[in-house]
Amino acid sequence: SDHPDILRLAKLSEDGQIIVSPVIEASVKIADEIKAVEMVISKQTSMMYPVLMGRKDLGGYLIDTSKTFTK
Q1: Residue 23: which of 63, 55, 54 has the closest Cα?
Q2: Residue 23: C-alpha distances to residues 1, 4, 37 (Å)
Q3: One-character DSSP codes across 11-38
């Protein structure tokens, strides 16, 4: 990738197909703590915020999966 904000490209499986998506670093606030995390930019149009965070970045937090940011 030629863009300075893209760390690398990730290969993901979506609906049985391999998709290549850019990975960026962003600061997020979780439970009053600001963390630098890696996020994958998604092309999923149903998402309000088209980024995916990894499980390791959410480790130690209780996540309510009934609250989503889908359209």
Answers
A1: 54
A2: 10, 11, 10
A3: EEEETTEEEEEEEEEEEEEETTEEEEEE
17-30 and 33-41 strand pairing: antiparallel
d(CA 33, CA 3): 28
pLDDT tens, position by position, 10-63 = 998 888 899 999 999 999 998 898 999 999 998 888 888 888 888 888 888 887
pTM of the entire predicted model? 0.76
CA angle at 50 for the pair 66 and 70, rounded to the nearest 5°: 30
- Residue 34 has which token pair? 């600001």
Print burial letters for 15-26: b (CB count within 10 Å at least 16), e (below 16): eeeeeebbbeee
